[in-house]
Design goal:
Helix 3 crosses helix 8. The chain has nine helices and 19 strands. The chain is globular, with a radius of gyration of 21 Å. It has a six-stranded mixed sheet with strand order 10-11-12-9-3-13. Strands 14-17-16-15-18-19 form a six-stranded antiparallel β-barrel. Strands 5-6-7-4-8 form a five-stranded antiparallel sheet, covered by helices on one side. Helices cover 19% and strands 30% of the residues. It has a domain of 231 residues: Probable tRNA modification gtpase trme, domain 1 (Gyrase A, domain 2, 2-Layer Sandwich). Strand 1 and strand 2 form a beta hairpin. It is of the alpha+beta class.
Length: 411
């Protein structure tokens, strides 16, 4: 793979993302609790010093961010409380630093053909400026990552999960033989912010030269962002309307601070990874390492909309076509009768029979109920059915419900 630094090239809609930029639900993984014990401070400091940092790291640390390790990065899990930040996104707006996500730039004569070979969803049919959700599968049909691919002007942008960036780069290198494609890892060159919530349009509009209200969901365009070229897309990982903005690395703090200042009176809060997880779980969005993994295929995960075996070839297609349909297990929603939280790995039972396992669980700030997603035997997935959960040795009653748990009202 040719990995070049600092080349931004053309954006979509005929606008430049450059000159070249100078030289990455998600749930927060807490640090090993032993590192917080007396005598462990030096070890904790040493481990933190080896973690990657986004351009906004110092701002987070100086403004009350509780910093944790996540996917090899030192990231804020929360500032005030997860619940307060969660409500700010649902009711007004929340601002997330998502520069830990991997951003890969594909160009060259075979870039579209190569991405169609790599991804389960259709790349060739993308319209200019369009964003599409897809999976990257291994030869056995297991999920290596879930990604977003965007067609820009003469190149494609692939956004991958932070913890999977190096794995996906290695996978690309192994499979690009025979394709005339240049792949550039731009993760360290670009900042990336997510502004989510019902007030996102009014807060971002004055800082960007784009008709945000007229932008379709899952579309993007090149834009002037406080005087420099960037990319804005109407995407997010919260279940709310909102935007994700890519700009040169050194420009990220300027945009972040402008949004914090402008949004203060409107109820905007800086948000950490903690509420990003509760928000995506309410919206039933899968999180890699929980609902998705190399041992789970996209059909079992309920993501068949992002798999197009009828129209194209891709890595893992043959294995997926050979799998029994429908899959033996199905991803379902669970609402618990009590307030205890069913964490990943919690056993799901029906009449003392093991029928599945929880993949993600939390207490929903919006619904004020404990919710979870689980993979359950398909024969036991009737909506409204009662099941039991073995929550740390105690039986908790739950009901199977339709996903998502939360759906925002249409404007």
């Amino acid at each position: 793979m040719r990995v070049r630094r600092g080349c931004a090239g053309e954006s979509d809609c005929g606008s430049k993302v450059g000159p070249p930029f100078p030289a990455d639900p998600n749930a927060a993984n807490d640090l090993d609790p032993q590192l917080s014990q007396p005598g462990k401070a030096d070890l904790r400091k040493a481990l933190m010093s080896d973690l990657l940092q986004t351009p906004l790291h110092d701002w987070h640390a100086a403004n009350g961010g509780r910093m944790v390790e996540f996917g090899g990065w030192h990231m804020p899990v929360q500032y005030l409380s997860i619940t307060q930040e969660h409500h700010s996104v649902r009711r007004a707006a929340g601002l997330f630093d998502i520069a830990h996500m991997g951003r890969l730039r594909f160009s060259g004569p075979d870039s579209e053909q190569f991405l169609d070979h790599l991804l389960t969803n259709d790349v060739a049919s993308l319209k200019d400026c369009q964003v599409r959700y897809s999976l990257i599968c291994n030869e056995a049909g297991g999920v290596l990552d879930d990604v977003l691919v965007t067609k820009l002007d003469g190149w494609h942008l692939l956004v991958v999960n932070a913890s999977n960036r190096l794995k996906i780069i290695d996978w690309i290198e192994r499979h690009r033989v025979g394709f005339n494609v240049t792949v550039e890892d731009m993760s360290a060159e670009w900042s990336m912010l997510a502004l989510q919530g019902p007030k996102s349009i009014e807060l971002l509009s004055s800082l960007i030269d784009v008709d945000l209200a007229g932008m379709k969901y899952y579309f993007s365009c090149g834009a002037d962002v406080l005087g420099v070229r960037g990319i804005v897309s109407r995407t997010g990982y919260t279940g709310e309307d909102g935007f994700e903005v890519i700009a040169p690395r050194e420009h990220g703090a300027k945009l972040w601070e402008a949004l914090i200042e402008r949004g203060a009176s409107a109820g905007l809060l800086p948000c950490g990874l903690g509420c990003r997880d509760t928000l995506r779980l309410e919206a039933a969005m899968p999180l890699y390492g929980h609902e998705l993994s190399e041992s789970i295929d996209p059909i079992s995960a309920g993501l068949s909309f992002a798999v197009k075996p009828q129209t194209k070839d891709f890595i893992g297609k043959a294995a997926l076509l050979e799998k029994p349909q429908p899959p033996a297990k199905k991803r379902v929603g669970l609402v618990l009768a009590g307030r205890r939280i069913a964490r990943e790995g919690t056993q799901v039972l029906a009449g003392q029979v093991d029928i599945g396992e929880v993949t993600s669980g939390t207490f929903s700030p919006t619904l004020e109920k404990s919710i979870a997603m689980a993979y359950v035997e398909r024969t036991a997935t009737a909506l409204g059915a009662d099941v039991e959960l073995n929550v740390r040795g105690q039986c908790e009653r739950a009901t199977i419900v339709e996903l998502p748990f939360y759906r925002r009202a249409k404007a």
